[in-house]
Write a structure and sequence with these properties.
Layout (H helix, E strand, L loop, with lengths): L7 E8 L4 E5 L3 H12 L2 E8 L2 H17 L14 H13 L4 E6 L2 E5 H11 L4 E5 L2 E10 L3 H9 L5 E5 L2 E6 L1 H4 L5 E4 L2 E9 L4 E6 L7 E5 L1 H11 L17 H11 L18
Parallel strand pairs: 4-8
Antiparallel strand pairs: 1-2, 1-3, 4-5, 5-7, 6-7, 8-9, 10-11, 11-12, 12-13
Length: 279
Amino acid sequence: MAQNSVAPDHDRLTFADGFVLEAPCRSSFDEAMALVSEHGGVQAHRTLPKDADALAEVLSKQKGRRDRLPDAEKTEVLSPLSVGELRKYEAVKKAHPDALVCFAQNGYFELYGKDAEKAAPLLGTKLLEKKVRGKPSLPVTGFRETAWVAGSHKLWKSGADVFLSKDGETFKELKAADYIPVGATLNVDGIKCRIDAVDFTADEVRLTNIEDKNRPIRFSESIQYVRSYVEDAGTAIYDTIPKKPAARESIRDKLKSAQKAQPPRTPKPQKLKGKDMEL
């Protein structure tokens, strides 16, 4: 039979003033009580084995047995999606085809299909199957409604548009372009910079130091580093984005507009000839 325990040898007790007492297990308590008035209370108590190597071997074997035990698989059961709710989701997705659509269902914001496949590794969540009544199942993942801020921001910082829908209304919409707004000016380490470009795949933001307009200096930083300064700046940063000039109207368009603006001509009455002129 495998050995599962090791016989104890003695106790080691450490008192408040640092004094250490080593005594047989049966008598260690009484001996310690007699020393409390002199050395203070017992701060640490440890029972030592007769064979330390044997104890280490037993603990190692027990750990090995635990490691071989299969993890208890927890089956997650999701409520099926009705056809009516599926149609609502499809309408939202059609209106926002490029966004990761998070659809509120039973206390969760759920993502389906390709959105779910993209979102699962970003969220660190499992990819499950969502049953749809009368239709094939869909891949699904998501996060609790109460954790919508953290969940949506994990998706947003990947450079994706994120759209949260609940009860047929827009719950929250996050645009990838707003995560780090290109064209905006920003103070980075006390230096006035312009955001030139963002590459989410390369984790890179390209900036230009515009302190000296005659000698602009270009450099790059990580996305999260620049994002921290964007958050510090607040909504005011979006006001620094240069407005695009209105498109100039072509000459042809001007002529068409002028023709439409002219009132219709009233046809002149025609003179009657011949017999038609007789009264």
